[in-house]
Amino acid sequence: MRFWWVLACLVLCFASSARAQVNAETLVEGITKPGWGGGGKSTFAFSRGNVELLEVRGDLSSYFATSHPDAPPGSDRFWFRDRILAYGSAGLKIVSGERAANDGFGHLRYTRMHWLRFGSEVFVQAQYDKFRLLQRRLLFGAGVRVVFANYERFRGWCGTGALIEFERRNIAVENQPPLGPDPVNMTNPRSSSYVTLLIPIVPEYLSVITTAYVQPRWDKPRDMQILQEAKLQVKVTSHLSLSTDLSVRFDSRAPQTVERTDIRVGNGVIYGY
């Protein structure tokens, strides 16, 4: 019931306006047991790139997972068989003390591990971002997932697949074809590959998780999006954690008036259940 309540909230977010890449992998570190779970996160960040500003963000996630029947007997690590993950985020950007713009997204993903270390997944996503001139972005994709390490001191997994995205952008008339290079509507078929590393520096208390995404277009490989995110998380209680986040986002073919690289540093408070 919790999952469907969160999903309904995401649908409402989509309807209210319809970030480019989104790192859903940062959520899975908290999935350590079967059943329902999730949490919320509040983040304060300073961005440098397209704009220099203060950003306040709220995140909400929920998941349902089942145990894998082939998990090693007596293993202290959780191996899942099926997992449904819903994730929504909304941000408020403030420039010079004044409200500037909002952005938000919703992500829904289903993963099935056919074998202990190998599985497949499908996902959908919707988002908007005024500062990146993104009025609406809808995305559908599928791929495979490989778990190459699942130890107490080190966890790692990777994936690759394909997606198609539909974008509507707020491009100035003088930058639209035939006068300029930036179309308003775009359909981008891309490959999408990622690798995630999770290192518990002090098990159960202090951990680092880092994820790198690479998403080139199938027909125009030089049109590439890259995302690198790292998070240092300190557990305060069984439900409450503090985090420091760093993300670097690169779009090789951003609109003319948009910077290709964005750097974001933030601090957050996380509640999990």
3D structure, described in words:
The structure is a single chain. By secondary structure, the protein is mainly beta. It has a single domain, classed as Beta Barrel (Porin). It has one helix and twelve strands. The chain has one helix spanning 2-17, and strands spanning 35-48, 53-67, 80-95, 98-112, 118-129, 134-150, 155-169, 185-202, 206-216, 224-235, 240-251, 261-272. Strands 1-2-3-4-5-6-7-8-9-10-11-12 form a twelve-stranded antiparallel β-barrel. A hairpin with a 4-residue loop joins strand 10 and strand 11 (240-251). The radius of gyration is 19 Å and the shape is globular. The chain starts with a helix and ends with a strand. Mean pLDDT is 81; it is low at 1-20.
